[in-house]
Hints:
Blueprint: E1 2-5, H1 14-29, H2 33-46, E2 54-58, E3 62-67, E4 72-77
Antiparallel strand pairs: 1-4, 2-3, 3-4
Helix pairs in contact: 1-2
Amino acid sequence: MKAIVENPLMNISSRAIAIYVEILNQITACENENELRACIKLLEKSHPEISNFFNYGFGRNHFWVSSLNGTRLIFVEF
């Protein structure tokens, strides 16, 4: 997998920063798409407020995270 941090977080709460760091940690801990999908599901359970700070999703061969204003923050290719 190849992870790219495309843009920095701007003017965001400390809670959002903590979740963002946890997302990055999960990405780096995973070796493939299936592991990442499982980690993101666990992250959603442990931080149900994640959608208050970020949009995210999986494509056919990638995972992305963006701010609520649409700026893409992280892009992961499988």
